[in-house]
Design goal:
By secondary structure, this protein is α+β, with helices and mostly antiparallel strands. The chain has eleven helices and 15 strands. The strands form six sheets. Strands 10-11-15-14 form a four-stranded mixed beta sheet. Helix 3 packs antiparallel against helix 4. The longest helix is centred in the first third of the chain and has 17 residues, at 46-62. It starts with a helix and ends with a helix. The structure holds zinc ion (2 copies).
Length: 386
């Protein structure tokens, strides 16, 4: 923590308490937030870890009467970014020193173990980012499936390109036959400390840029970064019943972790090619079946296709309206729970473009025979309603 931190960070806001909050209030706010954002409860969530550090830092200052006073004074005196006067030091320097965990989590007699966990976290905070195991990044990719494969599930080969350890130097950044050495400037911590007056100033080591290691002979393949782009092909299992546009998470199939960290996750956006006959609505298959006016009016038995099965016959009762949908149970898509959706068959009248003379005369007879029925009888009247 530095004076710069004091001027830039609003510790009261971080804990969600007022500037006049009593110590008990601050403690309660911290306990609540610390449990919520504790890294063990938010595995792999970098933003929670950031937040956790922020509230811990805020508490370490506001819970200490003397430091809180210093903080309040610093904020009111040189809120505008004045240089810090040289002089007395508080003895606090970086990290979370002087912060009594037992005080927060029940004291020495009644240690729930949370203090130990926190201790681990704080120690982790002292090691440099470069030395810490790091979770691999999440990777996004896309794949296109046939209609049938989306329904049945399939295995696809996915080519993934991403940054990984340089294969030439195995990620060390050092030329073959050499190894990086500990940064002499920061003793491998990646942090350098300067005393700027009231508060210690801790910043990223200029010599090693926070890595804690320096490379004398850089690896020519990666110019010392230790990172390289590579591609790999993996076999990914796509579960049955995926829909077009769906995003599937394949845990642990993302970029590999570093220094023993877990791999990231792979997200696959699925595109499904349309089928010439069938459509999908969740677990139901849809199909539109052309019928004649006579079939709907007089009734008929119609053979309709099912997906990957024998055709089924549906009975159209006389007087069936156009676009009515019939449900054929169990002929849809298999769900995760083992049940199967239905096939929804919609009948649609095809109006013939060309008629032979016999058909034309029959339709003309029909028109004459039904001349008394006006389907638009009350349409104009009903249209007047507000
Ligand atoms: Zn390299
Ligand atoms: Zn260094």
């Amino acid at each position: 923590m530095s004076t710069k931190d004091f001027l830039e960070k609003d510790y009261y806001k971080a804990l969600g308490v007022s500037k006049t909050a009593k110590p008990a209030e601050i403690k309660a706010a911290y306990r609540k937030l610390a449990r919520k954002y504790h890294p063990d409860a938010n595995k792999g969530d970098a933003s929670a870890e950031e937040r956790f550090k922020e509230i811990s830092e805020a508490y370490s200052v506001l819970s200490d009467e003397k430091r809180r006073k210093e903080y309040d004074e610093a904020r009111s005196l040189f809120g505008g970014g004045f240089r810090v006067p040289t002089g007395q030091r508080t003895g606090q320097q970086g990290g979370f020193g002087g912060f009594d965990l037992g005080d927060i989590f029940g004291g020495s007699g009644d240690n729930s173990g949370l203090g130990d966990i926190l201790g681990g976290v704080f120690n982790r905070g002292r090691t440099t980012a470069q030395n810490r195991p790091r979770r691999g990044t999440d990777v996004e990719t896309e794949t296109t499936l046939t209609f049938g494969d989306a329904i049945d599930g399939t295995t696809v080969a996915l080519r993934l390109t991403g940054e990984g350890p340089c294969p030439t130097c195995h990620g060390t950044g050092a030329k073959a036959g050499t190894v990086p050495r500990m940064c002499p400037s920061c003793q491998g911590t990646g942090q350098s400390s300067r005393n700027l007056g009231s508060f210690g100033m801790s910043e990223v080591c200029k010599e090693c840029h926070g890595r804690g290691l320096v490379v004398d002979d850089p690896c020519p393949a990666c110019t010392g970064s230790g990172r390289a782009m590579s591609s790999r092909t993996i076999q990914a299992r796509i579960p049955a019943g995926v829909a077009d546009g769906q995003r599937i998470k394949l845990a642990g199939k993302g970029a590999p972790g570093e220094r023993g960290g877990p791999a990231g996750d792979l997200y696959v956006r699925v595109h499904v090619k349309p089928h010439p006959v069938f459509g999908r609505s969740a677990a139901n298959l849809t199909v539109t079946v052309p019928v004649t006016f006579a079939e709907l009016t007089l009734g008929a038995e119609v053979k309709v296709p099912s997906h990957r099965g024998a055709p089924v016959t549906i009975r159209i009762p006389p007087g069936t309206p156009n676009r009515r949908t019939f449900t054929v149970r169990g002929k849809g898509v298999r769900r995760k729970d083992g049940t199967t959706g239905n096939m929804l068959v919609t009948v649609e009248v095809m109006v013939p473009k060309d008629l032979n003379s016999k058909a034309r005369s029959a339709i003309e007879d029909l028109r004459e025979a039904t001349a008394g029925q006006d389907p638009r009888e009350d349409l104009l009247e009903r249209a007047k309603e507000a």
